[in-house]
Amino acid sequence: MSKRIIIALDFERVNQAKELLAQLDPSLCRVKIGKELFAVAGPDLVRDVVSDGFDVFLDLKFHDIPNTVARAVKVAADLGVWMLNVHALGGFTMMEQARLALKGLGPDRPMLVGVTVLTSLGIDDLQQIGIDREPEEQVSKLAFLCRDAGLDGVVCSAAETSLLRAQLPQDFCLVTPGIRRPEDMGDDQKRIVGPVEAIQRGSNYLVVGRPITRSDAPSDVLNEFNSAIADIN
Predict the structure, then answer these.
(1) Is residue 35 annotated as a catalytic residue, yes or no?
(2) Structural domain boundaries, residue 146
(3) Local confidence band at 108 (pLDDT 50, 70, 90 cut-offs)
(4) Which segments of 52-134 does DSSP mark as H helices, in order?
(5) pLDDT for position 183
(6) Angle at alpha carbon of residue 207, lines to 158 and 89, rounded to 5°
(7) What is the mean pLDDT of residues 121-129?
(8) What is the mean pLDDT of residues 10-30?
(9) Are residues 135 and 191 in contact, defined by beta-carbon separation less than 8 angstroms?
(10) Roughly what angle, to the nearest 10 degrees, separates helices 14-21 and 35-51?
C-alpha cells in the first residue's frame, strides 16, 4: 500500500507522541514533526522516530536569509528525514540555495517542498498582510516560484490542487494539510477538503492531525483513511 497519509504529531509533550507512535504501523503511514514537538524534544526525537522505521516530514518551514536556510536544511537532512520544507515567501534565492544544499546527498536526499499559503488563512487574512490576491492566485504564484527554484513540490490546500495539477508537471508533489472527514471538526482550518476529494483533485500526500491523533483508536481511524483512498489513482 502506498503511504499517502502523513500523521501530524502536533503534541506539546514527548510522551504523547510516543504513545501514539506505539499504536501506529510505519508501513501504513508517515509522520510529521512540527515546531511544537521539535521545540520540546529537538533532533533527538527525530532520530528516534526515524530509527523506529517511520518516514519523517520535518515541518519547520525554514524562512530566513538564503545562507542560514541552506545550512539549516543541510543539518536537518542529516537527521535522516524523508521530507523537509521551506516557506516560499522567503523567495527564489533562498529556496534555490536550500535545494543546492541537499544536492550533494544524491538520491538519498530528503524531498524539499515549499509552503505556499497556510490553510488557516483566508482572503481577509491575506489582505491584512498586504497580499491583494485570492488565496488560489497566491498559491499558484508561489507554486510556480517553487518549481522554478527546483523544489520537489509544495504544501497547499486541497482546494488548490486541481488548479496546480493543470498548471504544473505531473511529478510535482502536492502535500495537503487541512484534511477532514464530514464528521471531523474544522477547528482553525479554513480551506479544508475530505480525503477522497483531495486525492481525486491531485494531492500526493494528505496531512491528517486531530481526526487521528485525538481519536480513541488512532490505528482504526488511520485504516479508515487508507481504505477510503486505496483505490484512487
Answers:
(1) no
(2) 5-229
(3) confident
(4) 66-77, 92-103, 123-128
(5) 65
(6) 65
(7) 92
(8) 96
(9) yes
(10) 40
Cell of 222: 488511520
- Number of structural domains (the chain) is 1
Residue 176 is part of a domain; what is its CATH number?
3.20.20.70
Residue 115 near residue 85 (C-beta atoms within 8 A): yes
Q: Is 218 a residue whose pLDDT tops 70?
A: yes
- Find cell 515541518 and name the residue: 59
Three cell numbers at 120? 488557516
136-192, pLDDT tens digit by residue? Answer: 999 999 999 999 999 999 999 888 999 999 999 999 999 999 887 766 655 555 556
Catalytic one among 3, 61, 74, 103?
61
Report how far Cα 116 is from the mean position of its chain's Cα atoms.
11
Look up the pTM and report it.
0.93
Whether the predicted pLDDT of 63 surpasses 90: yes
Q: What is the mean pLDDT of the chain?
A: 93
What per-residue confidence (pLDDT) applies to 1?
Answer: 43
